[in-house]
Write a structure and sequence with these properties.
The complex is a heterodimer. Chain A has 12 helices and 10 strands. Chain A is of the alpha/beta class. The longest helix of chain A has 16 residues. Chain A is globular, with a radius of gyration of 20 Å. Chain B is globular and about 65 Å long. Chain B has 8 helices and 2 strands, in the order ααααββαααα. Classes of the chains: A alpha/beta, B mainly alpha.
Chain lengths: 277, 236
């Protein structure tokens, strides 16, 4: 579905932000890209729909190589939508509906089709009723949802979100995770960059770890979070639940190498331990 | 109380009234006031439009005074300069400093300019305080104003709010560390603030460009016509 081959990119021919990254995402995946600040996550994302042209390497979408002429770019940008980290960087129109309509209008759709899509997208993110509101009158979480609606209205196959939970309150994070999971179950492939590890096992079925422009790990959340060396290199930690069970193990309980990652798994494990003793 | 013109424009009794009418009325009154150049008419239009803004649009008088005060400061300074430093003719008052005098001409200019601007302010205020900018831009677009002008206005309008916020945050951060404690470090802090804002605006413009490109921007902002009959949700 989406494949990146040996991607290299440097800023000003000097600072090497990406040093040969290769990864593959399948249709319907929900992927988390983990990495500390400055690891190159955002730079990688901007390659996925052709905003940045790599120094070396290639990007394939649906088996088709990404080309950098105007016509192909429009096609690929419809397929791969990027939600920027800071909604203020993305929302520019004086009203919410005009901003959401921006992408679909650029695709050259009819006005009726665009109106329907705007209505649908705003409803999806729970922002119906705010059509005529000025974006700067919205709260941070609301702005985030509008920026997601702006991408949804383009009906992308792949949705890329750069640190979507940054700056949201806990309820906002829960709502957002639920929305992303819903979208994923409807067939949209989702790629999220983050360094908040606690939520990752909850939604992601695949994890990539990026450190200093290089991919140093890939696998299921279970695989990644059982490799302390990778996590350490990436300045990451295991989810707090996993940490708890690792500490319990050092008190003499044998976990047989199976540490829970989510609250649900932890609950089952606790019950199992209690019943055993 | 914080003065938020945009909020007022979205929430007054005339927000939903016809923007074309408001735009034409404003332009017409501006031209009329400037063309007549009559002191009595200036006063009349000032009072009349103030009544419209306060009574009909229902805008709070404190906000209205704040709106007037900002340009008023410039107006007073300009007119003082006009009175003391311009014009020729009969000298009617000598200050005795560097031969600065007030002449009949300069007094005439000063007073007329002041009154003319005073008459025009509420006319503009009427438009600015009762009409959301999006509607004004839509009007201008249908009136065949060049697209590039409207697009620049639209992008500027949006970024102004982002920058005001940013300036506000940075200034508070500086104040926290006593950046405005004395005159000298006030100047230093202000300088640092200005240069940072400049650099950040370059940064922001690049990110904005990227995000617009991501959604298929082709150098022209398309015009969206919403469905009829969508009700606005008031900020709660």
């Amino acid at each position: 579905m989406l494949e990146v081959k040996n991607l290299k990119y440097s800023y000003n021919n000097e600072y090497k932000a990406l040093k040969g990254v290769s990864l593959k995402v399948e249709r319907g995946d929900m992927v988390a890209l983990l990495g500390k600040n400055g690891a190159g996550k955002s730079t990688l994302f901007l390659h996925l729909n052709g905003i940045y042209e790599p120094d070396d390497g290639k990007v394939f979408i649906d088996g088709e190589e990404l080309k950098y002429d105007k016509k192909s770019l429009l096609k690929f940008r419809q397929k791969v939508g990027i939600v920027f980290q800071n909604p203020d960087d993305q929302i520019f129109a004086p009203t919410v509906e005009e901003d959401v309509a921006f992408g679909p209008l650029n695709l050259g759709l009819s006005m009726e089709e665009v109106q329907d899509r705007v209505e649908e997208a705003l409803q999806r993110v729970g922002m119906s009723g705010f059509e005529k509101t000025a974006p700067h009158h919205l709260s941070g979480g609301q702005k985030k949802r509008v920026s997601i609606a702006g991408i949804l209205a383009m009906k992308p196959e792949i949705m890329v979100l750069d640190e979507p939970t940054a700056g949201l309150d806990p309820q906002g994070v829960t709502d957002l995770t639920r929305l992303l999971r819903e979208l994923n179950s409807e067939g949209i492939t989702i790629i999220i960059s983050t360094h908040e590890v606690d939520l990752v096992p909850d939604y992601a079925n695949k994890v990539f770890v990026l450190v200093d422009g290089e991919l140093i790990g890939e696998g299921t959340p279970k695989e990644i979070f059982s490799q302390p060396d990778i996590l350490e290199k990436a300045n990451l930690k295991v989810p707090i639940v996993t940490d708890l069970f690792q500490q319990i193990e050092s008190e003499g309980f044998d976990m047989q190498g199976d540490y829970p990652l989510t609250i649900n798994e932890a609950k089952d494990k606790f019950l199992e331990l209690i019943n055993k003793n | 109380m914080k003065f938020d013109m945009d909020y007022i424009a979205h929430n007054n009794k005339l927000t939903e009234s016809n923007p074309y009418f408001k735009l034409f009325l404003t332009v017409f009154l501006l031209i009329l006031t400037l063309a007549l150049d009559n002191l009595y008419f200036d006063v009349f239009i000032f009072i009349a439009m103030s009544v419209v803004i306060l009574a009909i649009a229902g805008i709070n008088y404190k906000s209205y005074i704040k709106f007037l005060l900002i340009p008023m400061a410039f107006l007073v300074i300009t007119c003082l300069f006009l009175v003391f430093f311009f014009g020729s003719g009969k000298v009617i008052y000598e200050t005795g400093i560097f031969g600065i005098v007030v002449t009949t001409d300069s007094l005439h200019y000063g007073v007329y300019t002041f009154m003319r601007v005073l008459g025009c302010l509420p006319c503009l205020g009427f438009l600015a305080l009762t009409t959301p900018i999006a509607k004004i831009l839509h009007c201008l677009a249908t009136l065949k104003i060049p697209k590039i002008v409207i697009e620049i206005a639209l992008l500027m309008y949006n970024t102004i709010f982002i920058f005001l916020n940013e300036i506000d945050t940075m200034q508070k951060a500086q104040e926290t560390r006593l950046g405005y404690h004395s005159y000298t470090n006030s100047f230093k802090s202000l300088g640092a603030l200005t240069s940072t804002i400049f650099l950040r605006s370059l940064d922001k413009s690049e990110t904005l460009q990227n995000s617009l490109d991501s959604r298929g921007y082709n150098g022209e902002l398309p015009l969206y016509k919403p469905k009829k009959g969508v009700i606005n949700h008031v900020r709660g």
